[in-house]
Design goal:
- The complex is a heterodimer of chains A (203) and B (367).
- Chain A contains six helices and five strands; from the N terminus they run βαβββαβαααα.
- Chain A is α/β, with parallel strands linked by helices and 203 residues long.
- In chain A, strand 4, helix 2 (88-97) and strand 5 (101-104) form a beta-alpha-beta unit.
- In chain B, helix 6 packs across helix 7 (201-217).
- Chain B is α/β, with parallel strands linked by helices.
- In chain B, 36% of the residues lie in helices and 20% in strands.
- The chains are: A alpha/beta (203), B alpha/beta (367).
Chain lengths: 203, 367
């Protein structure tokens, strides 16, 4: 079973609408205020207050990269695209900004609440995937260290399978990753360079 | 000289949930009668009626028919959330307003709807918070298979879980279905501390009758140990349930005999549905009084006028500040067990300060 949708705490959350003065800004503002958010509108650039916003709605029809105080695709909060013209070039630009949800113009009586929930959910999923990928990348980068540690342990008495099991056990006993344990082994062997007796390290 | 103002009435007079729609219709007609008889209100309201017969596909066309073929811009109508959501696009096109006098599941604040009955911070949340210390936190959830049942039970599940309780079962019936055996079998095995009943109409009556029968076989399944809770059952349906309603605990803004709401001199309503529909008509009349042509204004503009100060409608959400009452059926009538006054609506549950506070633990006299 899927976990239930996490409903973000919208109490006094802040939203910024990046759009030129227009009835659409009023329509979105009305819905946001009814939901319970604090709202500011901004055009043509996002002011510094945008960095403290919990959600940013942005115009796709007239938008351009320099409006945002962050690099395209790296917004620190969920973004909701306001799409009028469905020209592929504009959609491409909206995607490049990292839109987490979208609303089609004209905005009428509803749509903001679901956009907030969907945007927050996709933003959080993306953040957690990013963190996971960066962790996996870091571990991948240490692959060579693990191989070296296993080789060193094997060279001093263990067979290869035992050496790997030994490394795992070291990592578990110190509550660290295999990569961190491997780094310690490699570091220790390099200081003991030239040999000497290898002690089994169960610390 | 009173000015004539047409208003729409969109209520089914037959069909599966007709007892509720008839209560609302009576309330609206009573409201019109009182407004017309009131010398201080320079208005004569004329009802333009359509009957959707509880057929979901007739609501939107008939609502649009009222807005197109009469001068009415305000329609009092709808009982189910399903029908309310159906008519909103038509209201948007025609610039009309629906006055919706039923309890509902929240998460809506249309620019074309005024909500004159309760939403979850005014019914479900206080009811659960009142129940937990008295009966426990293990619940069984039932509901009709549409947005009211689904969303009420979703909110209930979140609240129960947050308070360290557990949902022991959750089951739905299609609107009108009376096959409650499976629910009863599950409840018998689960032995919850309470049952939240978000069934509507005939399904609800069948469930309550079957549960009363279960209570005669095993006294655990009676109000003192495992009550049935409801946020939509009122006096308007008691005659259809009979003695099986005894012990039922319900939350709402009005029960017979309560006098703090609706505003105005009349307090003899037969149920909160009737009271909320009456209140809708009276509030509309207050907004239009002394402002010729105001009946054609947008709702947002109406609520900005000075007349709006006399109403309990929130300008941001279009919901109503209401009393919150918890009442139990005792000898065929609701007896109020706990009450809070002037609780503003919080349709998106984003304002923790709008939740009724200071729920007193039940005091037991020690002999």
């Amino acid at each position: 079973m899927r976990p239930p949708l996490h409903i973000p705490d919208l109490h006094a959350a802040r939203a910024v609408i990046l759009h030129r003065p227009h009835a659409l800004v009023q329509a979105i503002t009305r819905q946001l205020v009814a939901i319970g958010l604090k709202v500011a509108a901004s055009w043509p650039e996002l002011g510094p207050e945008a960095l403290g916003a919990d959600f940013v709605f942005f115009d796709v029809d007239m938008g351009y990269d320099a409006q945002f105080p962050w690099d395209a695709g790296n917004a620190p909060m969920p973004l909701i695209a306001l799409i009028g013209s469905e020209a592929p070039g504009r959609i491409e630009w909206a995607i490049a900004q990292g839109s987490d949800a979208q609303m089609l113009k004209p905005v009428g009586d509803s749509g903001v609440y679901s956009a907030l929930l969907i945007a927050r959910q996709s933003f959080e999923a993306r953040q957690s995937l990013r963190a996971e990928i960066s962790d996996l990348r870091a571990r991948l980068a240490e692959r060579q260290t693990v191989v070296r540690a296993v080789t060193l342990l094997a060279a001093h008495g263990d067979c290869e399978a035992d050496a790997y099991a030994h490394l795992r056990q070291l990592a578990m006993s110190r509550r660290e990753t295999i990569e961190q344990a491997a780094q310690r082994i490699v570091a220790r062997f390099s200081t003991e360079e030239g040999g000497g007796n290898v002690r089994r390290d169960h610390s | 000289m009173k000015r004539l103002v047409e208003i729409g009435l969109l209520y089914s007079q037959e069909g599966s949930y007709a007892p509720l729609t008839r209560a609302c219709r009576n309330g609206a007609l009573l409201g019109i009668q009182d407004v017309n008889a009131n010398p201080d209100l320079a208005l004569e309201l004329v009802a333009v009626e359509r009957d959707p017969k509880c057929n979901i596909d007739l609501y939107e066309p008939l609502c649009t028919d009222i807005l197109r073929n009469s001068t009415a811009r305000h329609v009092i109508g709808c009982v189910t959330s399903w029908s309310r959501k159906e008519v909103i696009p038509g209201l948007e096109r025609a610039g009309g307003t629906l006055w919706y006098p039923s309890p509902y599941e929240g998460f809506e604040a249309s620019d074309h709807v005024v909500y004159t009955h309760a939403c979850p911070n005014q019914h479900l949340l206080p009811l659960l918070n009142w129940t937990f210390p008295r009966f426990g936190r293990q619940g069984y959830l039932t509901g009709s298979n549409y947005i009211w049942g689904w969303e009420m039970n979703r909110v209930a599940r979140a609240v129960i879980t947050e308070h360290g309780g557990e949902v022991l079962g959750e089951r739905y019936l299609p609107i009108g279905d009376t096959d409650v055996d499976r629910m009863l079998a599950e409840i018998k095995i689960a032995r919850p501390n309470f049952i939240l009943n978000s069934l509507i109409g005939g399904s609800s009556y069948a469930f309550l009758k079957a549960y009363a029968k279960l209570g005669r076989e095993d006294p655990y399944f009676t109000a003192p140990t495992c009550p049935v809770l409801s946020c939509n059952l009122t006096e308007s349906e008691l005659t259809y349930i009979g003695t099986a309603a005894e012990g039922l605990i319900s939350a709402g803004p009005y029960f017979v005999g309560w006098k703090s709401w609706p505003q105005g001199p009349r307090h003899d309503f037969t149920s909160s549905f009737e009271a909320a529909a009456y209140s809708a008509v009276r509030t509309l009349a207050l907004l239009l009084n002394g402002r010729p042509g105001a009946e054609n204004e947008k709702l947002a503009d109406l609520l900005q006028s000075p007349n709006a100060d006399q109403t309990m409608i929130d300008v941001e959400t279009h919901h109503t500040t209401l009393p919150v009452l918890i009442a139990q059926v005792t000898n065929g009538a609701f007896e109020v067990l706990q009450s809070w006054e002037d609780i503003p609506a919080d349709p998106y549950l984003t304002h923790p300060d709008r939740l009724p506070q200071d729920v007193q633990p039940k005091l037991t006299v020690i002999k």
